[in-house]
Structure formats: C-alpha cells, structure tokens
Specification:
- It comes from Flagellimonas iocasae.
- This is ATP-binding cassette domain-containing protein.
- Belongs to the ABC transporter superfamily.
- With 416 residues, the chain is α/β, with parallel strands linked by helices.
- Helix content is 31%, strand content 21%.
- It is built from 11 helices and 16 strands.
- The protein has a 6-stranded mixed beta sheet, with helices on both faces.
- Helix 8 crosses helix 9.
- The mean pLDDT is 89.
Length: 416
C-alpha cells in the first residue's frame, strides 16, 4: 500500500478557512487537492466538538460519549478531542480535515495527539489547517498557504519554511505613562503559603507556596486540570476557595474584610473570551478609554487627556489610523493587542494575561509577545502570563510550574 499524501495549509488572519473546508468536505473541485475528489472526508475541529456537545445538552443525544457516563462538557479538551477522533476513525473516512488540532492542549497531550495523528497518516490522508508553524505535522508531504480564498503552493519544503518564518518583532513607541498612577505600598502583591484546595473531595492544589512582587514577570504553566484557573480565580477574588487559606493579596489576608472591587481595581485582566462581551459598536479610541473606567463600552464623555492617552497607545500598537474604526472590525490579533492596552492603560500593579495567544497565527502571536515583553521592561506592573504553549521569544523572569499528582498539584519555580 502506497503512503498517502498529507497536506499542511498555513492560515493567518486573511484566510477564509471555512470556505475551503466546506469545499473539501462537499467534494467540490480544488485543483491543488484534486487527489481528494470523490473521496469521503470528515472534520476534526473544536466546532465539531461543540456541535456534539450541543446535541448532548439540548436533545440528550450522546454520540461521542455513548459508552461513557461522563458528559462531554465535563471532559478536558484532550479527552474531548480523543473521543471525537475515535468516533471519526470508526467511520473509516478516506481523509481527515484537521483544524488547529493542538489548540487548548497542554504539552503532553499535544505530543500524544501528534503521535497518534502521525500513525493515522500511514493509512489515510490528513489535511491540516494550522495557524502556527510549530504545529505542522512532521509527516506532511505538501505545503500550502491560504491567502484569503487562494491556495499558494511552494516548489519545495524548504521554500515553504523559508517564506513563512518570522523574525522577532519590535514596537518603536514607548509605553505611555498612566494619567493617575496607582500607588501600591506593598512590595509583595500575591502570596500563597502552603495553600491547598479541593473540589468535591478531589485535591487540586497541594501546599502551594508562591509570591509575586512588584515589577516581576512570571509565566504560569501546567497541564490541563493542574489548577491554573483555580489559582487565578483566587487571585482575582472570583473564587471563595481562598478563604481559610494563608493567601495574602496586596498586603491583606484573604477573608479579613477585603473588598473584591478594591482588589479588581489593582488588577488588569485579559483572557480571549473577554472580547465576546464587547458586541456593541465601540471605536478603538473608546475601547482604550473604557479601561480607565472599568466599563464594557464608554458611557461618559472622554476628556482631552484621556483621548490623548488612547492615541498614544494606538500609535504604539500601529493602529492610530484606525482609531475611529469599530472594535468588531479588527482581526483577532489586533483585538488582542487593543484589549491588552485596555487592561494596561492605568498601569495596574498586577496584569494577568490568561492564554492570550490561543488561536492566533504565528505573526499575531509574535506581535503580542513583543508587546508583553515591552510592557514588562518599561512599566512597574507585575505580569502573570498563563499559557499551555512555550511562546518563542517570550522573556519571563520566572516560571511557576504546576506538577499534578494524585494528591493535588505542587509547584516548582524556575528562572533567575
């Protein structure tokens, strides 16, 4: 039996991925992929998992989990993708269309899935859409880039990699100073001392000791389910699990009458899901200014000083000419930059960036990383960068890694 061809299609912010996927699965003619005509293809993507999840929740129809008592929505991302892949293979398709298969997976689960997909590639064709070069499977035989709706081919593997590599990006402008600096008298912003947390009798965190001081740049890593989200929610005040534990935030021990609102005033927070809250027609200028008022949208008349500050941030981001453009018209990468500027505009003592590069293409991720490095270098804000993947050129001073065990995750510190 001949080894099947396997295709990688690099995507970016211009790519009309859904259009091409629909053509592939409907057997529409695609010159560059004519070998797949009249063959059966199935889709491996996050959207498929969400479709099956919807069927399970709305109609009580279990497909991916028919042999399990566990609902699909309670599974980790890795378990969900494993269940979907198993279901697709049972139908014996001629080819699989993979949409960013490694997104939202920890390093170990990514490696396991990559090995499994490479094994599958020996007997059936894989068509992988990838927004990150590092995710491209080593079994790939043919490389393309999707520019809008056009597939660009390359004469050789070397030509593809040479054409699509990215240099370390830089921002020319300085980080704008705040209008009214926030004075934080405590050098130590966060302190966990032997903190343990359980959910429904299951230990999640086991004797975690960790502190974050003013101006430090930390990366928080750990596999899915290791407790990263639990720790973040304790820091932001969104979890009650900190009560009764030796947890001190901005000099005040948890449970001693601290105000959650006062806590949030000292934290700039961004996670990609926050962008979904901004569904109105907000200009980029107003988006930045809204960060000064902690509002979703701007409902007061901005001052000239506020408008000038917003302009400085937009010049830094290279978006000043789009200052009157609506936020929902930006690319995904541009939205992340603006939301980070919004979180940073007051120069809060602590900035938390939760999986900020998830779903970005290489160029957008590199630009985001360059912005974070610059903020860390030019401001007094402490940064906590949370991610599954090791981002190229990210320069944290310290890494706090959660190590799971049967008795809950412990933590180790690496770095300077």
């Amino acid at each position: 039996m001949n080894q099947p061809k396997n295709y990688a299609i690099l995507t970016d912010n211009t790519s009309k991925t859904q259009d091409l996927v629909t053509k592939l699965l409907n057997n529409n003619s695609i010159t560059e992929l004519e070998v797949l005509e009249n063959k059966t293809g199935l889709l491996f993507s996050r959207s498929e998992i969400e479709r099956f999840m919807d069927e399970e929740e709305r109609h009580d129809i279990k497909i991916l989990t028919k042999d399990s008592n566990q609902p699909l929505k309670t599974m980790s991302s890795g378990e969900q993708k494993k269940a979907l892949l198993s279901y697709l293979l049972q139908q014996e398709p001629d080819f699989l269309v993979l949409i960013n298969p490694f997104d939202n997976l920890d390093v170990a689960t990514q490696a396991s899935l990559k090995d499994q997909l490479c094994a599958i590639s020996a007997s059936r064709t894989l068509v992988q859409f990838a927004s990150r070069l590092d995710d491209i499977l080593p079994v790939t035989t043919d490389f393309f880039k999707l520019n809008g709706t056009e597939l660009e081919s390359y004469p050789s593997t070397e030509a593809f990699w040479e054409a699509n590599g990215h240099d370390c990006l830089q921002f020319a402008e300085a980080i704008p100073p705040p209008i009214n600096p926030i004075k934080e008298e405590h050098q130590e912003l966060v302190n966990f001392t032997n903190v343990s947390v359980s959910f429904d009798g299951r230990q999640v965190l086991n004797n975690i000791s960790w502190s974050v001081k003013q101006g430090e740049f930390w990366q928080l890593i750990g596999p899915n389910g290791s407790g990263k989200t639990t720790m973040l929610s304790m820091i932001t005040g969104d979890s009650h699990k900190g009560y009764g534990e030796d947890l001190t935030l901005f000099g005040q021990k948890k449970g001693t009458g601290e105000s959650v609102w006062d806590l949030k005033q000292k934290i700039g927070y961004f996670t990609p899901s926050i962008t979904d809250r901004f569904r109105g027609y907000h200009t980029l200028e107003n988006m930045i200014i809204s960060g000064l008022h902690d509002s979703i949208g701007l409902y007061v008349l901005p001052t000239e000083t506020e408008k000038r500050l917003a302009g400085q941030w937009l010049k830094l981001l290279g978006l000043y000419d789009k200052r009157d453009t609506h936020f929902n018209e930006l690319t995904r990468g541009e939205k992340r930059l603006v939301m980070t500027a919004r979180a940073m505009v007051k120069h809060p003592p602590l900035v938390i960036l939760d999986e900020p590069t998830a779903g970005l293409d290489d160029k957008s991720a590199a630009l985001f990383v360059a912005l974070v490095n610059k903020i860390a270098k030019e401001s007094d804000s402490a940064i906590l960068f949370v991610s599954h993947r090791a981002e190229p050129n990210l320069n944290p001073q310290f890494i706090f890694e959660l190590i799971p065990s049967e008795n809950g995750s412990t933590g180790i510190i690496t770095g300077n």
